[in-house]
Predict the structure.
Amino acid sequence: MAYLSSDVRREKIIDAAVEVIASEGLARATTRRIAERADAPLGSLHYCFRNKDELIESVLARAVATMEASFEEIHPEEGFEATLRASVAAYWQWIQRDLGLHLALFELLIWTIRRGEHGTKLYREANEPFGGQLIRSALERAAERDSFTPAVSIDETVRFLLHRFDGLVFEFAESRDVAGCQRQTELLAQALLCISGATP
C-alpha cells in the first residue's frame, strides 16, 4: 500500500464516509465499513479521527466549505435580481458537483431530527450554513444597493429557496435529468423575483 500523508488519508476517509452514508445509510456507515471503502486499515481511521462523531463533523465541515466555494462568484453590487438569480444558480451547481454529498447530508439531518429536541437544534445549526447565511447576506446587501424592499421578507425568501432545493436534490437523484432540473431552477428564480416584487 502506497504511503499517504495524514491529510490525504483524512480526505480519502471523508470521501468514503460520504459514499457509504449516501449509498447505504447512516446505520450501515460503521467505521469498519468506511475504512473498507477508503481502502485503509481500520487503525488509520481511528488515527485520523477520534471517533465516528468527529468523522461526521468533518463531513459537515466539507459541505459548508464546498457551499462557500460555490458562492464566491456572487456579487451583490450587481443588484437584487442578478444576485437572486446567481444564488439559485450557485446552489444548483453545488448540488450537481457532488450529489452524493447532498444525499449524505439528508441522511445525517434526518438522523438529527429523530433525536428529538436536541436533534432539531442540531438540524438548525447544520442547515443554516448550507446556503442560509450566504444567500441572506447577499440578498440583503443587494437590496440595500438597489434601495429595494422586497414584498416578501428576505428571511422568508431564503427559507422558500432552501426548501425547494431540498426537493430538487431528491428529484435529481431519482431522474438524473440535468436539463429538467436546470429548468426547475430557472422557474424557481423567476417565481422568487415575482413574489418579491422585483419583476412584474
